[in-house]
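Look over both lines before class:
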Amino acid sequence: MKILVCIKQVPASSKVEVDPVTGVLKRNGVDSKMNPYDLYALETALRIREEKGGSISVVTMGPPQAQKVIQEAFSMGVDEGAILSDRKFGGADVLATSYTIAQGIKKMGQFDLILCGKQTTDGDTAQVGSEVAEWLGIPSVNNVCEIREVGEEDMVIAMDMTEDIEITRIKFPCLLSVDKDIFQPRLPSYLKKQASRDREITMYTFADMEDQNELHYGLNGSPTQVQRIFPPEVNDSQEFWEGTGAELADRLYNKVKELKFI
């Protein structure tokens, strides 16, 4: 079985600057890590490979330094990795991002199963996985919380639908967006890290894409227009009041009214 996991490098801190012109995050010079939800997708892939055999590849989209998350995936047991990196890909919304990833997957070859994390911690849209599946023309399932059975031509999975758990059978090739707690992610292996230290990571740029229309990538291919984005203001001011219960209640009421909460 050929499995592909889509992973992403995200800021390791919430203190990230925003470009006032483009409205996108300034990622250069910011400490980064693998998107936590992607760890569950990687663990799912590793468990399936242990049962059914095959290979696991990963793909990420981002600046060249995003290769670090691919190297981390190698240290967990992944076989191959590719990065989609080009200035023309920068500033993409979910539509342009999913299209670029789908084009990159086509360059990498055919896969039986594509796995994604439920969402990313920097965007929180939870849309890219499903959109990648649409571009590839394959079925997809979100909120996957359990792998019940993996067959030769299909698999049985469970979805967390908030009010209940829904069971479905889906044929290969397909894409699953897995929820957290589906499996406990394993820690990276030092021995695997050393063994894969010099492993080649394939890089695809805009020139490698089958579709050479620049209007489908990056800011040009993003119909979402961000009117304003800004970091939240930090307000840690405090007031300490003293008095009887009745006095404090009146003062609290007047304060809430002054702030126009009521």
In short: Residues 17 and 26 are 6 Å apart (CA to CA). Residues 36-52 form the longest helix (17 residues). The chain has six helices and eleven strands. The helical segments are 36-52, 67-76, 94-108, 128-136, 190-195, 245-258.
